[in-house]
Amino acid sequence: MSKNTFENNLEELDKIIKKLESGELNLDESIKEYEVAMKLIKEASKVLNEAEGKILKVIEANGEIDIEEI
Question: Residue 10's closest CA among 53, 47, 56?
Answer without folding.
Answer: 47
